[in-house]
Amino acid sequence: MNVTAPGEVDPSAVIGAGAHIADLVQVREYARIGPGSMLGRGAYVGPGVVVGRNCIVQEYAVVYEPALLEDGVFVGAAAVFTNNPHPRAINGDGSARPASERSTLGVTVRTGASVGAHAVCLAPLTIGRWAMVAAGAIVTANVPDFALMVGVPAERVGWVGRSGATLEHVGDGLWVCPATGERYRQHDGQLTLE
């Protein structure tokens, strides 16, 4: 298997052919890293997390379990995917809250989507196919396919095509990619490729 892996990889993790794992990376037990994917220096991939084929998880990004990144997902430097909507270290009486009592919910990122550097995605939520989350955004709700999300909390400010270029509205619910000419149709707050 052609894998570069100087980071700390649990023996139960599955690493696909051609994956690159930089130094200081931690890949926890039963995580799966797809073929051709790249984990940058200091990235953290939690237990059971699935990273698809040809993904890029940049330096110091944190992907807590039970996240799912489909194929071709980009995660920018120091982005964080949370997993506990009600985090507490202790109970009301001051006793330590055991890990078994902490609820864990995941972030799902669909094929081709991008999450910018220092963005925070608060589980549970799904980021749609080919969507783009801006650097520094805080995502608190599901993101539609092809949406361009910006701000705190993140709001849709436009649409992006598969190329990553911002789509141009040409009227009557029709959007066009200036880079590729692909045409998209908007209906009921959703965008689909024609």
Provide an overview of this structure:
- This is N-acetyltransferase.
- GO terms for molecular function: transferase activity.
- Keywords: Repeat, Transferase.
- This protein has 194 residues and is mainly β.
- It folds into 2 domains: 8-88 and 100-159, UDP N-Acetylglucosamine Acyltransferase, domain 1, CATH 2.160.10; 161-194, no CATH class.
- 0% of the residues lie in helices and 34% in strands.
- The mean pLDDT is 94.
Mean pLDDT rating: 94
CATH topology of the largest domain: UDP N-Acetylglucosamine Acyltransferase, domain 1
Percent of residues in helices comes to under 10%
Structural class: mainly beta
- Shape, per Cα inertia axes: globular
- CATH homologous superfamily classification of the largest domain: Hexapeptide repeat proteins
Number of beta strands:
25
Cα Rg = 18 Å
CATH class of the largest domain: Mainly Beta
| Tally of distinct domains | 2
Biggest β-sheet: strands ordered side by side in the sheet: 3-6-9-12-15-18-20-21
Number of helices: 0
- What proportion strand? 25-35%
The largest sheet, given as strand count, sense and whether it forms a barrel, is: 8 strands, mixed
How far is the first residue's CA from the last residue's CA? 39 Å
Instruction: Return the string of H and E elements.
Output: EEEEEEEEEEEEEEEEEEEEEEEEE
Gross CATH architecture of the largest domain: 3 Solenoid
Low-confidence segments: none
